[in-house]
Amino acid sequence: MRYLNYTSAILTGLLSVSTTLSAQNVRPIYDARLDLKPTSSSTEEVNWLKNQVLPNARRHWQEQDHCEEGFSIMDVATGAFTQAKATQKAYLYQYCEIRRGVSNNGIAIVENKHVVADVMYEGSWNSALGALPDINHNGLSEILITDNFTGQGYSHGGISLVELASNRIKKLGYIQVSESNCGAVEQGGMMTAYKLYVTPATTPIFYRETFKQSCDTNDQWQKVGKRERVSLDKDETEYFLETE
Fold first, then answer.
1. Low-confidence residues of the chain: pLDDT under 50
2. Cβ(219)–Cβ(213) under 8 Å?
3. pTM of the model
């Protein structure tokens, strides 16, 4: 039984590509075939951030009696998230797990040892995040958040794109990036993974390539069809933003 494992570290290699893929300046931003590890945090970072964000998280989620506190940092990314040209870190943290595969999470934006923004939302317990290189030309790094849900042998993953602009959450959209039935069928199961691209613009244009792999063999991923233009779905997640 195999499942796709994808984390924000996928972005590290993809976003370092400085050459364009075509005359349209199409850039890769996510590849669900890759299996990489999230950025780790030191014990000092974990303890410092825990002290900074737990009071807010406790107040926000205090009415959920099934939310047992269990703080952890899941991933870290660097960018200019709330102010152009700033040097900031985005820490993705889990406050508590509320049911199988679902947790109350947060994204703390830190600059010069200050939490300048704290975003809280309900998401996947094994989420990850990454920083995009300002795909809409407003000077801010967009935040890419992954999710991955598994049940009854099926799994699917997706990514949400958000931006912290003018002290509010701007939701760019959501798109599925993987699916698998490997745990639901004895033979003939398939995994599907998508590679996502973008052409930066005031209104970014997105593209997706499709790859498939058998659950029963160690064959290489096989590309299916050509790269096609796609539209992001509406992001149904409810985000709550606090700023200093």
1. 1-23
2. yes
3. 0.87
